[in-house]
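chain below, 67 aa
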Amino acid sequence: VREYREAQGMPSYEAEQRIKRQTADEMAVRLKELEKEIKRKDRELAYEKEKVEILKKCLHIFMQPQE
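prediction:
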């Protein structure tokens, strides 16, 4: 197998496993970054929804007939 890998220009088994571990570590870091971004976007969305609700209430108040 080792000779075949060398003949085909493939990395050794050990090198392949090292690459997989590095890739897995990079993916874990990227996953954490994406989770943080999702939480931030959720907070922004909640803030914007709150603003919309406040504007709706204001519009309702101003649209009532004057007495």
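The chain has a mean pLDDT of 91. The chain has two helices and no strands.
thats it, cya
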